[in-house]
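Class, look over these structure tokens:
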Amino acid sequence: MMPALKKYYLLFCICQLGIFFCVKAQVNPIAGSADGNLTAMIDSVAAAANEDSSKPVRPHFRIGEIVITGNKKTKSYYIERELPFKKGDSMQLPQIVEKFKSAREWLMNTRLFNDVVVSLKSFRGYDVDIAIDVKERWYIFPIPYFKPIDRNVSAWASKGYSLDRINYGLKFTYYNFTGRNDKLRLWVVTGYTRQIQLQYEQPYADRSLKHGFGAGFVYSAFKEVNTGTSNNEQRFINSDTIPYAGRFLNETWSLFATYNYRPALRTKHAVRLALNFNRVDSAVLVENPKFFNNGKETILYPELSYAGNYMNVDYAPYPLRGFMADFGFVRKGINKNINLWEFSGSASYSKPLGSKFYYNVAGNGTVKLPFNQPFYNLRLLGYRDFYLRGLEKYVIDGVVGGLVKNTLRKEVFNTNVPIPFFKTRSHDHLPLRIYVKTYTDWGYVHNPVFKSNSLTNQFLYTGGFGIDVVTLYDLVLRFEYSFNQLGEKGFFFHVKNDF
């Protein structure tokens, strides 16, 4: 890397940390305390409840009725399962009011509601009735599908925005199918690739609402196969460039079942068992004999995986406060055709700094054993959400990899835009939040087998500035101007949602 660029990158990191500590020093420790009017109200209720009002001791109150409104589809007992309190609990009134905030956050994080209001409804002596009003989302999405096959917009742009590289079809998803946050999915996609998917997930199948299950089938066929990596970019073979014009070069199917266990609000566990089939054309092995182990064209293998998740954040799609983490492992195969143990984990910590500044640090890591893996098992940085901002056009394959992302955000706009042409109560406004941000990312990938790419086996770092737009249905739009250690810079655009 050029010395001048190293100097500017170091200056950029120092400035970002300086802003972080300066803003943190301005945080008023009393700003997060209970509102004065609320405190006065609590004291007045406590004084009225005590015989000697000259000594306003705050007594314990009991949770009475929990009145839920607005839930036309969602079961009331499922909503109650997401609350940090239940009928009959006893605690001081400030504790009850403090749990209202947590209750709203948990209900919003189910992705079932556009808005949730939790409030005190009435007092009956030492019994406190609570009102919960929800605005349900739309749960049925028969969405026409039209999307490039490339990893992201930047990768598609490098192919000249070719319409020949488009997939189209229909994605039908029914969220909250029976009112218990279950999901039914049927996808039929054709075009450059072909995909058929049928899946059902029921996270709360028993009376305790702790155990669940899922099952599904996925079939995919591809005319283009990523057979290797050159100059840190994917190398493809296309059926239009070989004698088998229009032929699918790769076919896969997977039949799977899952078991879910959620013992508490913040913790989830999932176990998945699958049977996978993968076939490649002989032309793929001509390009890369190490695509699979032993020069195989067809592999059939079992897969066992576990995933654990802990979440305690205000809003999972775009957290501003709290901590969340996950850990998992995958075991693929039982013989030399496929032999992989993969361990991965991620964590994210977000903290308000005052004056509408927020800091977030997030990390991901993956280890694949044994290290001697075929190309098929080497995907790491540059795929899905596992990338460094500023290196989107590149992929870095390997068996050990990790990254850390540091982001400092400032909220500049937060409002609800009325939607006059919608008469429904649940979609009467459009939430809109806008943040400006600055960031630095660090990463590393170890690849002991394929060493020809310059970004493997070395420290990676990028930085930049951007704008995030957060709106309805967990939609996050990211506009970013980034630079990297190669001296490159440019504009990048990302869209994230759950559709």
